[in-house]
Design a protein that fits this description.
Glycoside_hydrolase_SF, three-stranded mixed sheet, about 35% helix, TIM Barrel, Glyco_hydro_1, EC 3.2.1.21, eight-stranded parallel barrel, globular, 15 strands, hydrolase, alpha/beta, Beta-glucosidase 22
Length: about 525
Amino acid sequence: MALQKFPLLGLLFLITIVVSSTIAVDDPVCPTTSKLSRASFPNGFVFGTATAAFQVEGAINETCRGPALWDIFCKRNPERCSGHNADVAVDFFHRYKEDIQLMKNLNTDAFRLSIAWSRIFPHGRKEKGVSQAGVKFYHDLIDELLKNGIIPFVTVFHWDTPQDLEDEYGGFLSENIVKDFREYADYVFTEYGGKVKNWITFNEPWVFAHAGYDVGKKAPGRCSRYLKGCEDRDGRSGYEAYLVSHNLLNAHAEAVEVFRQKVKGGKIGIAHSPAWFEPHDLKDSNDVPTVSRVLDFMLGWHLDPTTFGDYPQIMKDLLGHRLPKFTSSQKAKLKDSTDFVGLNYYTSTFSNHNEKPDPSTPSWKQDSLVAWEPKNVDHSAIGSQPLTAALPVYAKGFRSLLKYIKDKYANPEIMIMENGYGDKLKDKDSVEVGTADYNRKYYLQRHLLAMNEAICIDKVRVTGYFVWSLLDNFEWQDGYNNRFGLYYVDFKNNLTRYEKESAKYYKDFLGQGVRPSALKKDEL
């Protein structure tokens, strides 16, 4: 048995003890159970899995689908898309009925999907044509989910701006996107709002703005040439990310205004993606405040406006004229413009005060006056990181982040829209190696326990949890070798799906207790 394949086996005994111990909490909404399972959570708690259109659908030349931002980015920069083949992806477009059966096999209650803008409006605007075949595909998908007792959660925008809008005016760099996004959101709410009641306007606005327009790692790959790896790029780091986010937030507010007119009894939010941070040096008076400062820049950047109507004060103070300003009417639309806080959590790191920022080379990370450190002052890593893990594993940070949101934002409803573990596998690795994902199983155990503690001990109002992802898929600039799925996809042999150990665990976890669909309305 190779340690490289199973680097966390040494922790198996400890983790088994932790997750199997009795959860004894004096709280009627948190039942006492002999081991951690669905039964350990409040009645009506929703468990599911998640994907995104560009990452799984494929079929880029079907339904009159127009080119999207990532299509062109990968075509122009193949080295940054690591084996990208969007026409195949994992072919969810043709195999969704098969994959819905995988969801049923897991005993899940819900499924988070996204609607590809360019599959509905191939050229970005209704007046330029609507693909009725694209519209029908999402109707068929949603109907199949409902037929199988699975609740659809739909993301309106998961990083797939129609390329025509990108070419016409720069996409989210222009305030023109606000009007076009409102039109698109209006259309999908009208079309699907009768049977879909749970919506997310934007997925991970921090990643979209920072990675796409500040460091250039993701589409459209814009950044200033003074940053490493950006020597041949166009862009303006330290400026464009804030402009993109400003337009995105105003687009969100406009979409929510339409949503509340069109979708009765529904809920809508944004899926945020902060890490958690621990101070690099607890004895350094400069390091401790870095945690709240970097979270204001990472989470508060988009959560403060949709809660309070404006950006965090620290961002205004440090950025000055580089941070756009909302009008009074925009603030009014943004305030309380979400019904829940969507949260994508994966990992944590250490935050170190940046003593000497260079004002001539602005960037988002430097602007927060925080350097991210993999180890603290004592040279200790945060959590654990198996040899094949994409990111450090730190479940304590998950609980800390949930409590932070409760305390700072007046205990809002929170839904975990993504939580998952990435394995960096090689092309030569076999299906047997890929499905023996014990590290992912342990990751899920530890994070489900941390979430249970946040709910039952810290009294955080978490109401749902989605594993990323149902299937191995295209992980943006990391391509296909970075696998997050509960089901292994054999990219060499007809994209065949195989159940992983983590899927078996999740199925067993969800097999104990009562599914929300089995409860009467007065019990929810």
